[in-house]
Write a structure and sequence with these properties.
alpha+beta, Immunoglobulin-like, 2 domains, ten-stranded mixed sheet, binds copper (II) ion
């Protein structure tokens, strides 16, 4: 019995001594959980092609990387440079290349989808300003739960195929 008591006493003592480090562990866990939640979707290497003055449309390409293990559904896209934005895919219908909207865009857990020239892309419609090489702007993707994922988009050349190298 006395051994048992001692054991309990020791445990209590250890507990109180460890209080501050426990708090630290809790804090670290909280930061980890909240940052992994925020990183549910990473919009990587986002770029747009330059457009001619007065062009009404542009396109954004990127890797949409779902870092979470739950599937995500992107239901809305918006950007400061466009009056309206949609996710599109290019498809060949009767020998003609056409674009159609993907709504929602589903990204499985722990998977990515590449938006690439000739394939899926974010279509910027009613452009508010000309996209010039070297410019950057912000695009926001919204999932079905209302979580917003922001990304900086770098404008490359007119025929840009991959992420341009930022000027320093
Ligand atoms: Cu399009």
């Amino acid at each position: 019995m006395s051994i048992f008591r001692t054991a309990i006493f020791k445990r209590k003592k250890i507990k109180s001594a460890k209080n501050s480090s426990n708090m630290l562990i809790l804090f670290v866990q909280f930061v980890f959980v909240s940052s992994s939640y925020a990183a549910g979707l990473e919009v990587e290497n986002a770029f747009a092609r330059a457009v001619a003055p007065g062009a009404p449309m542009g396109a954004i390409y990127a890797r949409l990387n779902n870092r979470g293990d739950q599937a995500l559904e992107i239901t809305r896209v918006y950007s400061e440079v466009a009056g309206m934005s949609e996710i599109h895919e290019s498809v060949e219908i009767d020998g003609m290349m056409r674009m159609r909207q993907i709504d929602p865009l589903r990204i499985p857990g722990s998977a990515y989808i590449d938006l690439l020239p000739g394939g899926k892309h974010i279509m910027l419609m009613r452009l508010q300003r000309q996209l010039k090489t070297g410019d950057s702007f912000v695009v926001v993707l919204v999932d079905s739960k209302g979580t917003e994922y922001k990304a900086d988009v770098l404008v490359g050349g007119f025929g840009q195929m991959t992420m341009p190298t930022p000027e320093k």
